[in-house]
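Co-fold these.
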Amino acid sequence: MDDVAERALDEAAVAGASYADCRVVVRTVQTVEVKNGRVARVALHDDEGVGVRVIVGGAWGFAGLDRVDARGAEDAVRRAVRIARAGARLRSAPVRLAPLPPATGEYRTAVAVDPFAVSLERKIEVLLAADAAMARVPRVTVRDSSLEFVREHRLFASSEGARLEQTIVESGGGMDATATSDDEVQTRSHPNSFGRHQLCAGWEAIEEMALPDHAERIAGEAAALLTADPCPAGRMTLILDGTQAALQVHESCGHPTELDRVLGDEAAFAGTSFLMPELLGSFRYGSEAVTIVADATSPRGLGTFGWDDEGVPAERTVLVDRGLFTGYMSSRETAALFDRESSGTMRADGWSRLPLIRMTNINLEPGGSSLEEMIATTEHGVYLETNRSWSIDDRRLNFQFGCQNGWEIRDGRRVRLVRNPLYSGTTPEFWRSCDAVAGPDEWRMWGVVNCGKGEPIQVMHVGHGAAPCRFRDVRVGPA
Amino acid sequence: MLRHSADECLALADAVLAAVPDGEAEVLVTEDDLALTRFARNTVHQNVAETGLSLRLRLVAAGRVGVAELRGGGADAIERLVRNAEEARRLAPAQDDLAPLAEPDGGDGPCGWSDATAGATPEQRAEGVATVIAAAAARGLEAFGAYSTRATQRAVVNSRGVRRHGRVTAAGLSAVVRGDEGAGYADRHAVDAGDLDPAAAADEVIETAERNQGARPADPGEYEVVLAPYAVRELVAHLSHIGFSALAVQERRSFMRAGERLMSPGVGIRDDAADPLARPFPFDHEGVSTRRVTCIEQGVCRDVVYDTPTALHDGVASTGHALPQPNTIGPWATHLVMDPGTARVPELVAGVRRGLYVTRFWYVRVVHPLRTVITGMTREGTFLIEDGRLGAAVRDLRFTQSIVEALSRVLGISDERRLELGEDGSAVLVPWVRLEGFRFTS
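Predicted complex below.
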């Protein structure tokens, strides 16, 4: 791999690139899926290739090729250089990069038990046990559970002298129980929706999920939701569980603090942001209870690494400090526009795609409350669990989320299960209404594995540390 | 440019099949070459290309299935692929009701292929981008978007005699043009990059952008609407995802009730992989010929799409809509075609006394699958229609609306259609549609 990267950089220099970097990525993904008592899929996916990024004539060019050898490196460089030259005549100003001392080193995800060393039999056994437990509940018509393990070797080399090797390991798992009637479909998931919860961790993360232990519970909840009352409608207090709080952070703080969106790089696709630079340091984004950070050093987060895909060391950036908007995620190119250093958030979806500003671990810092205390001090409201639908406008202001499960709260107590809950609002008003966040005991790192951005679309795995939190005077209703 | 010929792809699949020690096998070879020039603020800011060939092997023996997939991998790729698939198969539990591999069906059909698109150069993409940027800059506006060209080929070979190859190209140009107080959107998709017509796209997006300045808020509520194809694609694609799959019906999560009229008589939606306007491709990931499936006919629910496992369940033949097997997603409609109407687009607008014209929806998600309720936002061009004329720009609104209910109140459908793409890249051929009511919630 080292030889391939060196070959690419040599070739780029000869071709006249003022800057070049090369990433060699070898990724292995193992998937095991059980559906309705059957092993639906056992699959191993290997993917390897080289991605080369160059600046020629002041313009970027990128090419990815599925050949990890000298020929592949040369071909990728030639294509990247031609692409850069073609775009150079449409550049209004040459690309400028924030300075970065070239780093060398290695990084490996800390794992207690290598998930690829655990037998396939054991993995199937866990899923079949969970499936059998879900099957004990009548009216549950679809049972789905899965595990996924990722190992990715990344080599990064730049014409500035950086030489970095990283091995990232992810372990993910989850299950869904779906109950149906003539007029309803209700799904409950554990530990999270979107198919699975995932961490940069080993097999121990799967053991912690205790899928079989939670299977009958979620199946029972799915069945109960079929006949539950509709969610009450009106403005009321809203309490979110940690998984939904994580997604709320993702959509309404993570994306709008990506500096490329702010500058318009995503204007035609993923959208822009309401958090414009003139608001930095003065805009009241949320209440005093709200502190949100981008932290690529958080243990076990899916956005945890040694260096980003530009070779910038993992960093922690405060995006919102006790309610005040204070920071962005940036790249070397976007940071240079503000004469700053990159915050180290450039990430690429494998070798074939260009690094973009992506979330690392966007964490809502823990507060001093607890879920039970929040419920006990709520006169009327709802407690919502696990995302079901999510939508937000292209500036990240107007949102509407649906959850799988809801509990109506009256006079400090959960009084009834409610179905099809929705809540909606506008980002700053919503976060300003946050009056409590649960403490470190209930704070957990969650993994989102379906974050899409960029053209061609890139799907990124990102982390979100979050705990249950409470909001006042929120618009709530049934779907 | 694709690096392998059709014969080379088939030979590669044959070589994998020959390396399988025993049992049945299916080999999928997919080669993809994609290039995309992206622009923002009237300058090119991202310019990329990628080429890759992937091999996928499904091994079936003694009631056990194993799958391995590999992209890249060098000289020992086939050996590794077979070893990985065999390992997965050996450890999978035996099952007595596995769906069989597909049999040859003698089918054939057109491929949406263009040599011009497959051979498009970065200079050609830059030329198209320059057209949009120059037009926007001349009006004092800023352009953002992407120009892409893609060539894909797929070979499927299995031990029952299926041996097929097909190839398809796609070219796309999307553009947002922004002024100080608003933006417009337009896109074009075609098999042949020569059909994109960047100048026409630029004219359209600039006209929308200039009209969409200084938008004023509109009250939430139900409005009569005219939806542009960029918005209609969201309705049709989500309707398909929610309910046009046999698996969704079997799992009781589809709205489809065969023979029942749920929509207006003018509504017809089918999956037609042979429609020349819908980027045709003749077979699915099992190598089964893709048949035309009429899902909605004159507003009445008809058929759904099948792959081999769901067809086996219902005792029917696959319609050729399989994703790579095995999977838990089920069959997928990838060439959605909505019937045109008879109205000219201006006539649709002219018929509205008071309503909204919606250019585009954004971030559309399913809120309630059985009731086909979706939510999303309008984006880059929402206008009042007053007394049959496009009027003032309106700030973006959130809608929460049942698709079936909306399509049960159709007042007009245009005779013109556009090729659009779903979020998964599927072809969606759709007209402009006038609806009696559409619910905006905030």
